[in-house]
Amino acid sequence: MPTVEIDPDELRRLTGHDEKDDAALREDLFGLGLEFEGETDDGEFELEFAPDRLDRLSVEGVARSLRYQYGDDRGVYVPSTNDAEWTIRVADVPEDRPYVTGAIVRGLDMDDAALESLIQVQEKLHATMGRQRAKGAIGVHDLTMLKGETLKEDDDSAKSVTYTGVDADEETMVPLEGDQELTLREVLDVHHIGQEYADLVADYESMPAIYDEIGLFSFPPVVNGRRTEVSADSRDLFIEMTGTDQWTVDKMLNIVCYALDARGGRVEEVNVEYTDDAPVTPEAGSELLRPDLVTKTKTVVHGDIETMLGVDLDERDVVDLIERAGMDAEPTETDDGAAAYRIEVPPYRVDVLHPVDLIDDVGRAYGFNELEPRYPDVSTVGGRHERSRLEDAVRDRLVGQGFEDLLNFHLIDEEQNYERLNAQQGSDVVGGGEAVTIEQPYSEDFTMVRSWALPSIMMVLENNTHRAYPQDLAEVGFSAHVDERENTNVAERRTVAAALCHAGASYEDAKAALRTLVDGFDEDLETPATEHPTFISGRTASVVIDGEEVGVVGEVHPEVIVEHDVELPVAAFEFDLNALR
Amino acid sequence: MKLPQAQVAVLEAASADEQRTIDRIAEATDLKPETATRAAFELDDAGLLEVTERTTSDVELTEEAERYVEAGLPELRLYEAAVEAGADEEPVGMGQVIGASGLEGDAVDIALSNYARKGYGEIDSGEIAADPEADPDADDEATALDALAEGAGAYARETALEDLDNRGLIEQTETVIRSVTLTDDGVTELMAGIETAETVGQVTSEMLTSGEWAEVEFAEYNVEADAERVVPGRKHALREMAERVTDVLVGMGFQEMQGPHVDADFWINDCLFMPQDHPARNHWDRFALESPEAIDELPEDLVERVESAHREGVGPDGEGYHSPWDLDFAKALALRGHTTSLTARHLSGEAMGDLEPPQRFFSIEKAYRNDTLDATHLLEFFQIEGWVMAEDLSVRDLMGTFTEFYEQFGITDIEFKPHYNPYTEPSFELFGRHPETGEMIEIGNSGLFRPEMLEPLGVDCDVMAWGLALERLFMLATGAEDIRDVHGTLVDLEFLREEEVTY
């Protein structure tokens, strides 16, 4: 679960509630679904957040939500914006990253706390909506350091920057935290930030870059240029976002604009101008005014709210709850005459896909824990699956015979599953099935699904040589191997495996246990001699139940026993559970 | 006087002048050692015999100690080398002395740390001084070591043994030896003559069929004596917990589901309205298969409806995700990250045909997480999954169901923390009060399935669901601290044998 760091003093200041002590704040935050995880070294709250309300990734957004919760604010708030002076022109768009958006915020009175919060909201947005910058990446610049190209000869207030695709070896910049002019290729190769994000652009045909009249100042999604670096003294900011989806970068921009608005900044629109020959974008040739701070409206049926919450509400209550959730509601009727609300949703909300999301907001504002639990008056018949009943019956019989029931991992590695048992992958013996393998395992010990259970039992014997004997162990469990006849191309089996390990454990003991088990299910058991590399030749038999070969029984080969550092004989069997059905 | 046969035998084998060990008595009387022990204690109770217990310790040299017996203790070698180099007159460079001593690797540190401790001299600023007064031949530890090597450990000094033990040079094991001597009363009774009582130990088949049992007296046993411990066959402790949960759920009207462990991402994630670029679906968190790679067939209509829900949303006011959706990814195989894939298969009708409300289903089956293994996290764990399908379900029904479920395990005061899941809305993390510690702890995740999940699956009523790891419930209920002791091949058989039964 991601976390966000929030300074409680900042929160008190931004909400205007100096009287709240830390404990009271923590309780209020829990009510928002932000769970207190701990405190950082410098006394900030570390809060766990659910990745739906990304507008709460900053202290400003959390403060806004708290003010709604306290009833200090009601209804939708949309910051007013100034008209655009700046344009982002998109020319020779980098096809792998065709979308861009932007905004200007002026008149900020930043301090270290505000700057820290701005950096955090960028990082958290990158980690969530931005999918580690692949889908959307943010660049924030000091506007005073930009020199726009003049758009019209007679109007020097209209300025532009250009988003374009360039050759990595030809263009140069001085990156953040760097002190020399590097080509973009060098940035990716030698600069520490460049190296970190180099993978993102590794397959790009051309490198995304943003220019003003002086030169390249941003290399999204990798690194900004040093020239336009933001400091606590910056008052006017230029914000650009690039990505693989226009909606995503626009929404990320809205969240940042709301946060800066809460810091007293004045949002100014930016004109995004896609050229006609930008064939990969549906926005080709269009002009967009950003940020797109338009609210959206959804219709929620009154009865649906009552059903989902299980309580009766009157219209006034619902409108009140919606306003306390930071939205506006206007009573209306659906086409078939049902009472409903037209709910206006602010532009920083990225989580509202369906009216149920708004009903959830009503529930949160109402307080879910205020609801009285009731056991649903719905009658159904319970029961276990036949397979699990069978598994259990077999387990009971084995335990009755004195076996200790095991529960092993289904994941194992090739060496344990085959080699240490002398078995070969792809051979026509029990356990020899072709391995179902994991693509990118974390651990070398878990690289495949086990093709039989005996290797797991041998590992348990190996790990318990210091414990008392006899160690008669059994497992009714899962195994799998590749089988192209299946829709998933995997044959999943339930397997019955048992091993007797004590002085004098012999083939006869294993067969006696098997015999007793099979008799209990009134099936015929035959044990014709066979060969299996795990077992001693001449002391190995096929398990044939009702005429079908379903497993193997025998004395485990000393080579296998010694390999597992066990110093007592082991006799074992393993067969397919289905044979007992 | 009359005594049972075993007691008579022990009494006769014992001596008033000499302590005899029980083993010796058992050998002389042909009794099993445990029978002889029992008889001896009974005679002790009767005042005829005295049982004394002695603890002996057996000392064995470790491999390291064996080496020192050959080559000498490292600090002594250092001292000798130091004296050789003239360090008894003025300090000499440490490197020179160490080189001359022939010590290498760990032995150097061992030598240095013991040198000063045992007063062979000072080590200061890289120089070594030797105390001319020190006498390596009188070294207690060396003497004890030699004595032990020659089997004369009994003569070693206690303090020297302690030092050797601290240095890990010896291993001491203790055994209790019981010996008996006749008391004066015992001697008197023996002199007076003791008869073997006509008592019977074992009830035999012959005795029962012949009617002899009516004539005999049964020897009294010491019924409080310790009995031997038996290694039992028993069901795995975690399995017992799973069965307990199953009982509760079946009792609440839930029916059990089953389905594939290896499944297409379509069933694991797409059907659950998880966007394909969701962080949980990236290659690190997914347990993607290398071989085989993809499922052969998916139901085409369903695929279309699911894709459309992802792209466009459902309902007149619905919106989709702004994320890519690719059929190849949907068909890719993985080990299921949650058993909600079974729920998706059941709700769609794929598992057992179309379901009409009301329904309750559950499973307690393995789910897989591509993560690192530690004391509280496994790569594979049992997920308890349950859902209820009915018309017009509310959050209150969800709360009522879960309150009822957790109360069966003594977990009360359930709190519902609003939460976010891609496939449920509203969603709640469940918190409950731990029955022992009283803490509020997270006990599950729940919610009402979203319309974007249910509509494509063809469900037109409500479904509420919840999930919880069985291991978590197990750890809460048993206080087990390392789940690796319980589940998997690192299991400790002793833990399984001794773990309290769950019922």
UniProtKB/TrEMBL annotation, chain A:
Domain B5: start-end pairs: 293-373
EC identifiers of the protein: 6.1.1.20
Claim: Magnesium is one of the keywords in the record: yes
GO annotation (BP), single: phenylalanyl-tRNA aminoacylation
Enzyme class name: ligase
Pfam families: B5 (PF03484), tRNA_synthFbeta (PF17759)
Recorded superkingdom: Archaea
Binding locations of Mg(2+): 351, 357, 360-361
UniProt cross-references to InterPro entries, sorted A to Z: aa-tRNA-synth_II/BPL/LPL, B3/B4_tRNA-bd, DNA-bd_dom_put_sf, Phe-tRNA-ligase_IIc_bsu, Phe-tRNA-synth_IIc_bsu_arc_euk, Phe-tRNA_synthase-like_B3/B4, Phe_tRNA_ligase_beta2_arc, PheRS_beta_core
Gene Ontology MF terms in the entry: ATP binding; magnesium ion binding; phenylalanine-tRNA ligase activity; RNA binding
Subcellular location: Cytoplasm
This protein's UniProt keywords: Aminoacyl-tRNA synthetase, ATP-binding, Cytoplasm, Ligase, Magnesium, Metal-binding, Nucleotide-binding, Protein biosynthesis
Catalysed reaction equations from the record: tRNA(Phe) + L-phenylalanine + ATP = L-phenylalanyl-tRNA(Phe) + AMP + diphosphate + H(+)
UniProt-listed PANTHER family: PHENYLALANINE--TRNA LIGASE BETA SUBUNIT (PTHR10947:SF0), PHENYLALANYL-TRNA SYNTHETASE BETA CHAIN AND LEUCINE-RICH REPEAT-CONTAINING PROTEIN 47 (PTHR10947)
Classification via HAMAP family: Phe_tRNA_synth_beta2
Family: Belongs to the phenylalanyl-tRNA synthetase beta subunit family. Type 2 subfamily.
Summary of subunit composition and partner proteins: Tetramer of two alpha and two beta subunits.
Name of protein: Phenylalanine--tRNA ligase beta subunit
Organism field: Halorientalis pallida
TrEMBL record, chain B:
Binding residues for L-phenylalanine: 340, 383-385, 423, 449
Keywords, comma-separated and alphabetical: Aminoacyl-tRNA synthetase, ATP-binding, Cytoplasm, Ligase, Magnesium, Metal-binding, Nucleotide-binding, Protein biosynthesis
Domain of life the protein comes from: Archaea
GO cellular component: a single term: cytoplasm
Sequence positions that bind Mg(2+): 425
GO molecular function: ATP binding; magnesium ion binding; phenylalanine-tRNA ligase activity; tRNA binding
Catalytic activity of the protein: tRNA(Phe) + L-phenylalanine + ATP = L-phenylalanyl-tRNA(Phe) + AMP + diphosphate + H(+)
EC number: 6.1.1.20
Major location category of this protein: cytoplasm
Pfam families: tRNA-synt_2d (PF01409)
CDD domains named among the record's database cross-references: PheRS_alpha_core (cd00496)
BP terms from Gene Ontology: phenylalanyl-tRNA aminoacylation
Limits of the Aminoacyl-transfer RNA synthetases class-II family profile domain: 239-498
Cofactor notes: Binds 2 magnesium ions per tetramer.
Keyword set includes Transcription: no
Subcellular location(s) of the protein: Cytoplasm
Necessary cofactors: Mg(2+)
Subunit note: Tetramer of two alpha and two beta subunits.
Similarity remark: Belongs to the class-II aminoacyl-tRNA synthetase family. Phe-tRNA synthetase alpha subunit type 2 subfamily.
Protein name: Phenylalanine--tRNA ligase alpha subunit
Name of encoding gene: pheS
